[in-house]
Fold this sequence. Notes:
There is one protein chain. The chain has helices at 11-23, 40-44, 63-73, 89-97, 107-114, 116-125, 141-151, 174-192, 249-265, 308-315, 319-327, 406-419, 429-435, 439-443, 450-454; strands at 4-7, 27-33, 47-52, 77-79, 101-102, 155-159, 168-171, 197-201, 207-215, 221-233, 236-242, 270-280, 292-301, 344-351, 363-364, 367-369, 376-380, 387-388, 395-403, 421-423. It is globular, with a radius of gyration of 21 Å. The protein is α+β, with helices and mostly antiparallel strands. Strands 13-12-9-10-11-14-19-17 form an eight-stranded antiparallel sheet. It has a five-stranded parallel sheet with strand order 3-2-1-4-5. Helix 4 runs antiparallel to helix 5 and helix 7 (141-151) crosses helix 8 (174-192). The protein is built from 15 helices and 20 strands.
Amino acid sequence: MIESLLIANRGEIARRIIRTAKRLGIRAIAVHSEADAGLPFVTEADEAVNVGPANPAQSYRNVEAILAAAKSTGAQAIHPGYGFLSENADFARTVEASGLIWVGPGADAITAMGDKINARNLMAAAGVPVAPGTTDPAADLDAAVAAAAEIGYPVMVKAAAGGGGMGMGVANDEAALRTEYDKVRGFAERMFGDGSVLIERYFPRVRHVEVQILGLADGRVVALGERECSVQRRNQKLVEESPSPAVSPELRSRFLAAAVRAGEAVGYRNAGTVECLLVPRQRDFEGGGPGTEEFFFLEMNTRLQVEHPVTELVYGVDLVEEQLRVAAGLAPTFDPAALAPRGHAIELRINAEDPKRFLPGPGAITTWNEPTGSGVRVDSGYVVGNMVTPFYDSLMAKLIVSGATREEAVERAKAAVAQFEIAGPKNNLPFFAELLENAEFLSGDYDTGIVSRMR
Length: 455
């Protein structure tokens, strides 16, 4: 097993990786910016290195500083967490060229799946369903208009190199397409350094369901069930649950098989997620009950996901431990042939944001009392006295609850939300209290428009 691990990340995910590393007897090394010096992950690590100012480009995305920290501390491996450099193929190559172990998928897989158009084409060739859309970037506005006319409106205008729900727009007609194309292309050039744009069919009412995969050290790819991620604001997730209330055993079998094919198509190793759109039959929204007609590949996230804890609770695995074992060339702790979901888990992302408009609300934490009890887990990045700064993502903690049934998990979530006390920064706990009483959410028959209908 790996003996020393540098975590190239911050906040709750760094703290969570440190927890598993320590349980396994691995020396955990943290890197931090000047702004994060007082956060729990820094003090809980066996060693910590200041890698620069608050600006992520000068700290958490500073490859030279992170590699220097690894060298000075004698780190054997680097875990990138999520965000920052986690899906940067050049960083992965540099880490391995430096003689370090990269705890993640190979750089070639990251590259292959990092471009949405290339990923779509690879998946189609592997027999994974993809939505109608362009097979090459729309070179200019005229090409985008022609593609949309062939695909049929409404269409999604999407940055080929985008991620995290950014760089997307919807066009219901040509006039809107002309506006959205220029907007998305400009945003993509500024944010990703790549203005390539793809056009694909937009489905107004869909569910967002993803499959957790793990590429094992022996070359096999296995799937650890699906997660429902349809509670979103601005295309960014707020709630995840597993199993999905929309997925039948028959559909789960097809979902998981497609996800495994996706991983095998790129020789995937380590943890990753295959994200899909689940398109309901029209009658599902006319009182016909749950059920689905088709699903389409959306993208592959070549890293550990924010929402991985719901899979851990339902499948009884520690995904960070499995990542470390794959990176070390070891067999998994579980029997892939015996994987099956047990019970139900729900994750709520506790953000420092206004619960009505979801605008960031950083500030000093004056009260922080986490809920406890049966089936309650909190992965947090802060404690009382810490400052939530505007430099990074607004995620403060993840509240994860589990139960024997979805109904029990929901009841535990209600109690935990009521028990969670945060003062100082704005937070979205009031939104979750409202959601957990919402009839549409409670029925399990909801889609990605649920938050906009609530607001």
